[in-house]
Amino acid sequence: MKKLNILTLLVVLLSFKVIHAQPDFSLSDGIYRIPYADGTEVHISNDHLDHDPQGRIDMSGTGPGSGPYQIVAAADGWVRAIVDDNPLTATDCADNNYVWMEHLNGEWTKYSHMETNSTIDDAGLEEDDYVSEGTFLGYENSVGCATGDHLHFEVAVSLTGDDLVFAVDGGHIDGDFAVNRIPVFCDISLNYFVSGSDYTADDCGSTSCSGTTTFSSLTKSFDQIEVTISSSTITGSSSVSFLNGSNALWQAEDYVKFSPGFTASSGTEFIGRIGECNETPGKLSADLQTENNVEANENLISILPNPNAGIFHLKYSLANTSDVRVIIKNSVGQVMFNSGEYKQINFLHETIDVSNHPKGIYFLEIHHDWGVEIEQILIQ
């Protein structure tokens, strides 16, 4: 079996990913809250492996109270699609009520079988509203092809870097253009859902992450997952092995360190990165104001993927119309890319190719009428 050996101690400065042959599903880049109102007891009937098709999750509220249970946004983002006018009598999968959200890390989440009219009428939401984590989206129900009231939840990502492609009827993703990911959740055992388990929904900031974590011995094989999120450091010894088909995420606020002999075998996906407790690294923030609906009043910038191989997708939304120019400089200030000037209105999605430049750290500058915003890019 081919192995990747890390022969010297390695401290992660930004983030890295080891992938020889992709497992069935990747772990999500985002760290999400359980998508029920705080305090709701939630039962997992089908995790990402047991669900048919795989990669999605079925869960239901079990207490306190008897429902209807409130479904909430798993992370900050935009409400991109709402279908909530199908009646409870609808049993066809194409007649499902659902919400699709786009998040600042480029991932999308879906909330299915929602109660009729609960998203628009009860939650007061419209498509393209920007909402914060924990915002009420509607009520759990069984509209569409569902057995009993429950929430069908999934995380998906576009394979093209464009907006997610899904069918209007039912909201199902097209496998040629998108793929599901295994959602990573904050403040729960293992940080991912397991069929038959029960959890209590809460905000991601309600519980601190583990402190210093040291693995003296660990082996994960096919379809097994390891997620550790630390508020301090994570250290892996020489007896740590990730075998074919396994997935792992180690995220620490200070550093991730590996001893000689640490192995990630062919067919493994391992992610090591620096990030604050329960926060998605690179997550963008926005000050929010309420005027009938929730709206963003700051500029929102997303670079996906980052790190990258020199080709990435730049999304940005400005609070006001402005003349905008995008410039990329290397670490000594030389201009490597200049977009020229154009008029920006609300939202723009650009694909930028600087793959002809050497690997390293670069700085993307967005110049607009009221200043300059700078984001770091890692080309590897």
Please outline the helices and strands.
Blueprint lengths: L2 E3 L4 E2 L3 E5 L7 E6 L8 E6 L10 E7 L6 E3 L4 E7 L14 E6 L4 E5 L5 H5 L7 E2 L4 E4 L11 E8 L19 E8 L12 E3 L12 E3 L2 E3 L4 E6 L2 E4 L3 E3 L4 E6 L2 E4 L4 E3 L3 E6 L13 E4 L1 E4 L3 E5 L6 E7 L4 E8 L5 E10 L2 E7 L6 E9 L2 E9 L1
Parallel strand pairs: 4-14, 16-19, 17-20, 18-21, 19-22, 20-23, 21-24
Antiparallel strand pairs: 1-23, 2-22, 3-24, 5-6, 5-15, 6-13, 7-12, 8-9, 8-11, 9-10, 10-13, 13-14, 25-26, 27-28, 28-31, 29-30, 29-32, 32-33
Could you write a compact summary of the structure shown?
The chain is mainly beta.
Please tag this protein with its features.
single chain; 380 residues; mainly beta; Glucose Permease (Domain IIA); Immunoglobulin-like; 10-stranded mixed sheet; 4-stranded mixed sheet; disordered N terminus
Per DSSP, the total helix count is 1
**Averaged pLDDT:** 84
Q: What is the beta-strand fraction?
A: over 45%
CATH architecture of the largest domain: Distorted Sandwich
CATH fold name of the largest domain: Glucose Permease (Domain IIA)
How is the main sheet built?
A: 10 strands, mixed
- DSSP helix fraction: under 10%
The CATH homologous superfamily name of the largest domain equals Glucose Permease (Domain IIA)
Q: Which outline best applies?
A: globular
CATH class of the largest domain: Mainly Beta
Our Rg estimate from Cα atoms comes to 21 Å
Q: What class would the helix/strand composition place it in?
A: mainly beta
- Summed up, the domain count is 3
How many DSSP-defined strands? 33
Uncertain regions: pLDDT < 50 for 5+ in a row?
A: 1-14, 283-297
Distance between the termini: 26 Å
